[in-house]
Amino acid sequence: METERNEALWKRMKPNIEEKEEDQISNGTAMEKTEKEQSETSLVGSEEMELNISHILEKIERYTQLVSELLESGKTMFKELSNEFEERLIMIHKEQMEKWQEEIKEMKLLDASNEEASAMLSNARFLLQNPLSDS
């Protein structure tokens, strides 16, 4: 009895050939409708996509231009800074050389003065050690 019921359920679950063909025809029509809708959507989507892509490409172009301008202004700024640095460094060097030249000049004057004083002291010592004998 139970086997009869199982067979009956099996028969109900198993679609007959005609139902299959009807399903395939209705599925084919549904697929055609879906394809048409998708192609229409893809056309609209494509135009929208192209617009989005063109906006992104414009952003890329503007960004690239901005980076290029920043690089150029950076190069100019560094060049000016480099020139100013070089001029300042040369000026510092020149000032230091002038200071040292002045020190050398002062040392030479001091040495000459010391030599003159030393010569006078030597003469005085000689005169004190060797008195003049006029008599």
Structure description:
- The structure is a single chain.
- The radius of gyration is 54 Å and the shape is rod-shaped.
- The protein has two helices and no strands.
- The longest helix is centred in the middle third of the chain and has 113 residues, at 17-129.
- The protein has helices at 2-13, 17-129.
- The chain is mainly alpha-helical.
Write the layout of secondary structure elements.
Layout: H1 2-13, H2 17-129
Mean pLDDT: 82
Q: In percent, how helical is the residue content? A: over 70%
Strand content: under 5%
Shape: rod-shaped
Computed over alpha carbons, the radius of gyration is 54 Å
**H/I helix tally:** 2
Number of strands: 0
Structural class of the secondary elements? mainly alpha
Low-confidence stretches: none
Largest sheet: none
Short description, anyone?
With 135 residues, the chain is mainly α.
